[in-house]
Design a protein that fits this description.
Helix content is about 30%, strand content about 15%. The protein is an alpha/beta fold. The protein has a 5-stranded parallel sheet with strand order 5-4-3-6-7. It has a 3-stranded antiparallel sheet with strand order 2-1-8. Strand 3, helix 4 and strand 4 form a beta-alpha-beta unit.
Length: about 240
């Protein structure tokens, strides 16, 4: 017998609530980021942008522990940023000069704006709709009114659907052409080896230089990674 989720169950899964992430450092006041999200959401629900995934936690941990130099006093462009955990973390704790968080969903970006305000970085983190494969995106700092020269592209868990790779490659090609000195860091869970290989082949086909950082541990269980507070649903 198959059980079907009731509308109340679905609404409960999709309901957003504040979740606080804390950096595991020996400090009386460790860095935290609070994100409005749906932490019970599963990838199979097809609504992946409404929660923070492990790859974002791993990327933030790397930037916090080993990659601060990539972000400090730099202009950052995040692709597929969803609710904004990585962008907010860069603006709040890594001294980014300016962060533009992009995503294809305007609804998700509306929540990302709330998350930037919630963490007090709405003057640093801005949002813009960007659908991969299009060239009509507006990469302009709304606060200064001037075009920003971006230093770093960030992306986490963007390698979910191989069918999206051609559009992603097109956008990356445009960005690399527009900003010749820009660098890129991607963090992704390896769900299927063939999916990762497909992405690497696409990068090599366009002569993008790639460097793989292997990770064996689940980042949410590793002491070296960002983790949830004991009460992830507490109000702020």
């Amino acid at each position: 017998m198959l059980a079907k989720k009731s509308n109340n169950d679905i609404d409960s899964i999709q309901e957003k609530r504040p979740v606080t992430y804390t950096a595991p450092v020996l400090d009386l006041d460790p860095p935290t980021v609070t994100i409005l999200e749906a932490p019970s959401l599963l990838a199979s629900n097809g609504d992946t942008g409404n929660r923070t995934w492990d790859a974002a936690l791993f990327l933030a941990t790397y930037l916090f522990t080993d990659g601060r130099r990539f972000v400090q006093d730099k202009s950052i462009l995040e692709l597929g940023g969803g609710l904004g955990f990585v962008s907010v973390f860069c603006g709040k704790h890594l001294d980014a000069r300016h962060v533009l968080l992009t995503d294809a969903s305007e609804a998700i970006l509306n929540t990302a704006k709330q998350n930037a305000e919630l963490n007090g970085v709405d003057n640093i983190v801005q949002t813009s709709v960007l659908e991969w494969g299009t060239r009509d995106f507006d990469l302009v700092s709304q606060s200064e009114g001037d075009t920003v020269s971006y230093d770093l592209i960030l992306g986490s868990d963007m390698l979910y659907e191989p069918r999206d790779f051609p559009a992603l490659m097109s956008t990356l090609q445009d960005l690399f052409a527009r900003y010749p000195k820009i660098q890129m860091l991607i963090s992704s869970a390896v769900r299927r080896e063939e999916t990762l290989q497909s992405f690497l082949d696409a990068c090599n086909g366009r002569e993008f230089l790639n460097l793989m950082l292997n990770k064996k541990d689940n980042p949410t269980r590793s002491k070296a990674c960002m983790f949830l507070t004991p009460d992830p649903g507490r109000s702020v």
